[in-house]
Amino acid sequence: MRTLAKRVGAGLAVLYGAATLAFVSLQLIPGDTVSTLLGPATTASAEVRAQISAELGLDQPPLTRYLAYLGRVVTGDLGSSYQLQRPVWQLIGDQLGPTVQLAAAAMAAAVLIALVSAVATAGRRRQVRAAATAWELVAVSLPSYWLGILLLTAFSFQLPIFPVIGAQDLPALVLPALTLGLPIAGVLAQVLREGLEAALAQPFAVTARARGLSQTAVRLRHALRHAASSLATLTGWLVGTLLGGAVLVETVFGRSGIGALTLQAVDNKDMPVVMGVVLLSALVFVVISNLVDLLYRVIDPRVRA
User: Fold this and answer.
1) How many Cβ atoms from other residues are within 10 Å of residue 207's Cβ?
2) 222: in domain
3) Nearest CA-CA partner of 223 in 206, 240, 235
4) In sequence order, what are the residues at sequence separation of 6 or more whose Cβ sits closer than 8 angstroms to the Cβ of residue 67?
């Protein structure tokens, strides 16, 4: 119960910190929210602007709005969108499916690519390891929007294998998932290869080879499980970066989702929507972190002990 209480308290602290930082950051964005909502060509009078500001609560001091927002969040009310006049939870729910699909496909692709690269190159000749390190550094260094454009040019324009933009079926998911997953795969492969090489030098690996097991069997049956703890930790942390990457990827490929909704909300200074997305990201981070901690008990028997 003490451990559970600590986890719940830490999760609530993360959610509170995310909500506070998001609120302060949005207050620092230049520009008037009412003018943004009305558009640059508006001829609305000062009375109309004041009425809209009062309806949205923007005429109140920032501290009052902050405390009122925290009070609504505690009750599960994230408010309504300034621009679309719909509840924030409803907007997020409508766009959550495509983003979850993209994030899951990207993470699955990243883990698979990292496993293949690390298992195939750990403990090999220097030239093989250098080639693997080179592609990992390139994958990590490339901006996601540029990587997406390169993949579109190669596999949609030059070789019309995948749809260009806008489609939501399975073939249209391949290029966005690779765009979002390749940089993560580069990081995971580096960490996993180092863990595998450290595990292969342990006495249990030497004993397994002395019993006649092949190099591949030692890697997959013994060393991989030993090195998987660091991979699980890093994977949990990197899940939180998928939402930020989804903003660019969904824009490049013309996909609907949380990323496109966030970008539109930031452009329109739609504070309730932005705050809702930030809280959703913080909640995902808290849940994934606790799941990773539970996964340790499955991977590493020492944690269970």
Assistant:
1) 12
2) yes
3) 206
4) none
Which regions in the chain score pLDDT beneath 50? none
pLDDT on residue 299 = 64
**What is residue 138's predicted lDDT score, i.e. its pLDDT?**
87
DSSP string, 42-67: ----HHHHHHHHHHHTTTS-HHHHHH
If you write DSSP's letter for every residue of 262-298 in order, what string do you get?
HHHHHHTT-HHHHHHHHHHHHHHHHHHHHHHHHHHHH
Judged by DSSP in three states, 84 sits in coil
- 254 inside domain: yes
pLDDT at residue 302, rounded to an integer: 60
pTM comes to: 0.78
Give the per-residue pLDDT at 44. 72
Residues 187 and 84 in one domain: no
Handedness of CA 278, 280, 283, 288 (dihedral sign): negative
Residues 84 and 102 in one domain: no
The tens digit of pLDDT for each residue in 251-263 reads 888 888 888 888 8
What is the spatial distance between Cα 87 and Cα 273, in angstroms, rounded to a whole number? 9
| Residue that has been written with the tokens 């093989």 in this structure | 128
CA–CA dist 159, 115 (Å, integer): 28
Where do we find the tokens 């996964």? 295
CA-to-CA distance for 121 and 6, rounded, in angstroms? Answer: 41
